[in-house]
Amino acid sequence: MEYLDFELPIKELEDQLDKCQIIGLESDVDVTNTCKKIEKKLEETKRAIYKNLTAWQRVQLSRHPNRPYTLDYINAICGDSFLELFGDRGFKDDKAMIGGLGKIDGQSFMIIGQQKGYNTKTRQYRNFGMANPEGYRKALRLMKMAEKFGIPVVTFIDTPGAYPGLEAEERGQGEAIARNIFEMCRLKVPIICVIVGEGASGGALGIGVGDRVLMMENTWYSVISPESCSSILWKSWEYKEQAAEALKLTSADMKKQKLVDDIIPEPLGGAHYDRETTFKTVQQYITKSFKELKDLSTLQLLEHRMDKYSKMGEFKE
């Protein structure tokens, strides 16, 4: 397990517990009471830390290297039923954007999401979860296919942003994202979006328009990352913590502003501490959302979706 800066007190206690248990195994000394005291202290420390996380600490948790990624969710929830589909039929297959057909609780879904890598080699292969225009065009192709066959869509969002390289701009990055937003607004099947990690900028919005937008507890969703915001406003990355607070990018902030529909709770310490529980919870929320949407007519579905997004940003003086 890797630990973040603010998790070091937890690491110290876990190390103490491991040493205590080893002493008990290697000697005749009864360390039961000592271990119980350390376990109690560990539990209290965990609760104290994770129940009072700052916006920046939640950003750090969303990027935790042990955190499950899109393919982890798909493999756990869909099992062997997932059939990956490839290519945008125009340029090439983008490995940062994955998609395909899969079953969740017996119901077929078109599942699309950004995929990050687990190590240096796979991160390069997946372009760090930053999709090119062909990735968004592949996503749109799959969504239109789902619409044709009446299959609901699920998207998993986890990206530091769309790829900002020169070649991506030359191939129409902005147009590809804008086209996806436009088409998702009028797609004639239910769309459920789940933010499982980072939800940054247009890269997230390109697959983020849905009838239900769910956000995991320790994730963030914003037009810009705290580091980039800090570098623009303060000409330095040193003010990223203040930027994170000001951006109101946490799940609680997004729910309060009615920009997401629900928050998916995570195990104490984050999704990576108990993957099985995390996968089960996400599956339950997807199934619940689909049950709320499946009986709506196409007209009702589109009216509710347009009404939902039209109300965003309203204010009263």
Which oligomeric form is depicted?
single chain
Task: Give the helix tally.
Answer: 14
Extended strand count: 8
Termini separation comes to 49 Å
The secondary structure category is alpha/beta
* Shape assignment: globular
Features:
alpha/beta; 317 residues; 8 strands
Could you explain how this protein is built, in words?
This protein is of the alpha/beta class. The chain has 14 helices and eight strands. It starts with 7 loop residues before the first helix and ends in a 7-residue tail after the last helix. 39% of the residues are buried. The mean pLDDT is 94.
Compose a concise summary of this entry.
The protein is of the alpha/beta class. Helices cover 49% and strands 15% of the residues.
